Amino acid sequence: MSRQFPKTFLWGGATAANQFEGAWNIGGKGVSVADVARFKPEIDVEDMHLQWEISSKDIETALKTSDEIYYPKRHGSDFYHHYKEDIALMAEMGFKVYRLSISWSRIFPNGDELEPNEEGLKFYDRVFDELAKYNIEPLVTISHYEPPLYFVRKYRGWSNRKSIDFFMRYVDVLTTRYKNKVKYWITFNEIDSIERHPFMTGGLIRDQFDSNHEFEQAIYQSMHHQFVASALATKMIHNKISNSQVGCMITKLTFYPYSSKPEDVLEAQMDSRKLYAFSDTQVFGEYPAYLLNLYQKKGIEIIKEFGDDEIMKSHTVDFVSFSYYGSSCSAKNKEGLDYRPGNTSAAIKNPHLKASDWGWQIDPTGLRISLVELYDRYRKPLFVVENGLGAKDKFVNGKVHDDYRINYLRGHIKAMYQAIAEDGVDLIGYTSWACIDLVSNSSNQMSKRYGYIYVDCDDFNQGTYNRYRKDSFYWYKDVIETNGASVLEKEVE
After folding, report:
1. Residues near 452 by Cβ (< 8 Å), separated by ≥ 6?
2. Is 203 within a domain?
3. What pTM was computed for the model?
4. What digits encode the pLDDT tens for the residues 131-153?
5. Which of 17, 100, 169, 317 lies most in the core, judged by the most C-beta atoms within 10 Å?
């Protein structure tokens, strides 16, 4: 018998509206936080997190211009005008599922309106209908790094309790409109990133707050509001859409002890807890004791309304989804250790691993470790919704020979199979990031490419936006067609 993934396994790819869709000022769309994120080519690869340090002054400057060169998420890959072509290419690869996000500000331009933007709703109708034509299941992320900017500036984003009401109005519209078109939902993308990137995740502008403590308080208060909103959204989706599945989503930052010293092992455990605080709360429906202890230590007081705890407890998620790009190390004494960038954060370099063009460490075994960790902890189905290699592709005569990407993906697919077949993990599917080139979230660059499909656009918005199949396109098509056997028959001993 040939080695294959389960028959129901969902193969596909993922993108996000704020990096992919474009048309930032078309169709009634409002400005989002992503539309004021400026590309800063002067920033070194190891300091890419500074791309998301945005002040009120930066926002004022951004709003005075319609520039799409230094504000690249305004153009993305222009999926808005290429969606039929792009979905046809996904179908050609054999996608079973496509993870996409809906732009909140395309539905509610300011975030606080009473009525939605019909033109925005019609756009997603067309997208979902096109996916249905090819029997591709949509996996929709409701909030993916782009709160409406008006909501951020007027209400201080998610720190304001009104954010829950605004979000639920948005969810109500989506689930009413698309209840017959979307079965799989994710409430918040990488919800844990609010601690690392409070502006893009929570709509928090540092200079709107009087002190560092007040800003930190706002981060944790926003976190609470998102937990309540996620639980209410889960309840609403379950009530309105039969057989629906709702998941949480975290950034899987997998930490190894830098040495066998007990203090390094403990440090790795503590680093992991910072991440698990978010998924623990959404899976178990209550704050873990270690997080409550952290609040007490920091002098953080979470303001709750009556019923919040019951809402969170009663409406937990159906599955746990996550992004995984690589691993890093933890050490109690960090002096003299080398740091490398990673997904939304920088961490200690593992001397045993190779790295990508952007310094992210490559570790397929870490994906298997992550799957086992998460499944043993939660005993809920898992979904790998982001995994891929950002690289500097060479586009010559209409072709991209990206064996390096194929090798990266091959290793991670093998690791997923081992987690399923040998470790007993219940894994729903795999949507690699990003199936078509888009603007990188971490660097605001087009040149950091992930896709199976090359988009002819550079870091300075020069190009035709034509699409070209890379070598990995045909490779992944074969993986899906054989349900993984094309990799596993050669790679699994």
Report:
1. 13, 93, 435, 436, 469, 470, 472, 473, 476
2. yes
3. 0.95
4. 999 999 999 999 999 999 999 99
5. 17
